[in-house]
Every structure is written in structure tokens, then in C-alpha cells.
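hiii, so i know i said id send this last week but things got crazy w the move. better late than never?? heres the sequnce for the chain we talked about at the cafe, plus the structure i predicted for it. fair warning i was half asleep when i ran it
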Amino acid sequence: MMTCAGFTDKALVAIGAFHKTLVAHFQIDLGVAQRAAAAVAGDAAVVGFDGFRDLDRHGKVPVWLAERMARIGLAITTAIVQEEGPDGFLRRLSNPFWFQSLGAVMGMDWHSSGITTSVMGALKKALQPLFDPLLISWGYESANPSHSRFLDYHQLQGTRDYTAFLSIPEAIGFMQQHNWDAVNKKCRAITQSNAERFCRLLNAEPICPATDDFIAQMCSIPIKTRAPQKLHDVLYEKYNIQVPIMPHGEKFYLRYSIQGYNSNEDLDKLYNALKETGGYE
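okay and structure toks below
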């Protein structure tokens, strides 16, 4: 293992001092290095670099190295952000000498091809799971996740059809013309007044009181079913009723919603359909 004066072996786990010049470029103080080292101490107390000699400097990064780069990159990033904040980390990252040194520290040979892609890919893999969305929407804990949880959490946030935005002035005019406050009040009354009978039918405890404080024009009711997708499909195909049956943890919820074009008769049809199917318990 190569050494550099002023740094302990434990610090070298985190900062990976391949050469004293790189350590100088890295510009990380020993205290930060030691905290980062402690964070990755499970990777090895003292790491030898003999295994790096046989790597293809212009080929694909092996899985074991990519995973180690992600762990060490996460530890270093966390230590710097705690000391200097996100701006301090981004300032360092934008310095090409520092970035080159960071790549060497994480395990890429200092003159390997693809160091930018490899380092950013490792940081992406390590950091993305730490970010929760500001708005929880369709992709959050999806039953059918894509290849990227990050995109599911942050990109799938409802419709992005600009037609809806452009129609807002006409929609406001329509609501004013048809006294939408009264329509809204009627919809709430239908939604809330039916909650109790659906709970009785499904032998379910209500998740909240049926009042304006908790329920507007949508109501979710726990439903005990071993075949939620089948129940959804039967309601749609046999009864022409479209209602979501949504998973949440280990439970499922049936949700009905009442809009201006709905009436109590619509919920009567849903009630009778559920009664006939037995909810596929």
C-alpha cells in the first residue's frame, strides 16, 4: 500500500492516496477523511491496491469496483456536505483536478478512460436513493416500478398535458355559470353519506370520520380481497364500473369518487355489484 506523510492508514481507506500529488489536489482535511474512513470501515480496515494492477483501464468497470466506488463516494460526499454544505461539494466537484483526484480516491486509475462517466455513475447510484420527492404521486412505491425508482418518485407526478392548464380560464367560467359551489356541496354530501353503508358491506372499519375535515369528493374504504386486480377487472368488464383498488402496504383500498356528472344511483350500482361479487374474498 502506498502511503503519504501526514495520513494514517485508516484515512487512506477513504481518501485512497495513490500519490501525494493527488492527495494535495483532493484538498480534504484529515478530520473529514477519518470520518469518511469510519463510514466505509466495513469495506476493509486497510485496503491494498494490488488487485487494481490487472484492471483494463479502457474497458468496463467491474461490478465489485463499481459497488466499492459507490460506497466510498457516498461516504466522502456525506462528509463534505456535512462540513461545507451542498454548495461546497458542488464547488469541489466542478474543479477538474479535484474531480480527477476523487476518481482516483474512489478506485479509478488516475489516467483511466471513462473516469467522468464512472465517477458520476457511482455517485448517482449512491446518492439517488437518499432523495425523497417533494410531492408524492403516481410513481411512489409503485406496484409496477420501472428500472429507476428515482424517476418513478420524481418524474411520475400526474399529468403533464398542457391542455389542462390552457383550459383553466374556460373551466373557471363554466363553474361560475353553473354555481359550482352548490354542485361541490352536493358531491360531498353523496360521498360522505354513502361511506357508512360501504363499510358495513365490506365489513371494514372507516379510516377516518365522514366529515368535511377528512372527506371531500373521494372516499377510500379498506377491502379484504385476495384478488384485487380480478375484482377491478370484473367491475369494469361486467358492470361498466371503473374504480381503483389500490394497495397500501399489505392492505387494499377501494376508492370511489363523485363528480358533478355523478349521482347516488352510480354508487347504488357499485354497491350492488360488490354485493354480487362478494369482493372476491
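btw The beta strands are 218-222, 245-248, 251-257. thought thatd interest u
miss u guys!!
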